[in-house]
Amino acid sequence: MNRFRVRAHGRIATLGVTAVGLCALLAIGCSAPAGLTDAPESGTVVSVTDGDTLRVRVDGSSERVRLVGLDAPESRKPGTPVECGAREASAALAKLAAGKRVRLRYDVTQDRRDRFDRLLAHVSLRGDEKTLAERQLEAGHAEVYVFRGRAFRLLGRYKAAETQAVSADVDGPPPMGGPARSG
């Protein structure tokens, strides 16, 4: 009987510490989705490279930013012809973001930069909870991309946006490697 009480008290103490920790996080205003940086960087979109890459002015310097979890048709890959839907994807991203203030959040499951020295970030317009990647997916201009099997924190949201586009039969390019959608 005594052992049960000790274990029960241990569990209560653990729950109490966990609850106190969660309350402390809420009190300091941790508003970032789990696994994303708490303090986003802000910047202004200077230009759009293609459907999944932007140039953003951050702290006075111009940075190339690759949208995490998104793969749009290629329009500027050396030695590769422009893929079907690439121009539309680029134009859609430019319409969404060119010249606008954005928030960059880094995903703790991903590297900070890719092999081309681009920042890897979830980017959203100021005041918009959806990311630019989600907007591109919803419009059918890209597909979800998981680099080397390393799932990113917003994967569920991105897959839902992609599924919504396919279900709605939007007039974007067909999913790369998938059947063409009627339109």
What's the SSE blueprint?
Blueprint: H1 2-27, E1 41-50, E2 53-58, E3 61-67, E4 70-71, H2 86-97, E5 101-105, E6 119-125, H3 132-138, E7 143-144, H4 155-168
Parallel strand pairs: 3-6
Antiparallel strand pairs: 1-2, 1-5, 2-3, 4-7, 5-6
Helix pairs in contact: 3-4
Q: Can you describe this structure?
A:
This protein is α+β, with helices and mostly antiparallel strands and 183 residues long. It folds into two domains: 30 residues; 128 residues, OB fold (Dihydrolipoamide Acetyltransferase, E2P), CATH 2.40.50.90. It is 32% helix and 21% strand. The strands form two sheets. A five-stranded mixed barrel has the order 1-2-3-6-5. Strands 4-7 form a two-stranded antiparallel ribbon. A hairpin with a 2-residue loop joins strand 2 and strand 3. The longest helix is centred in the first third of the chain and has 26 residues. It is globular, with a radius of gyration of 20 Å. The N terminus and C terminus are likely disordered.
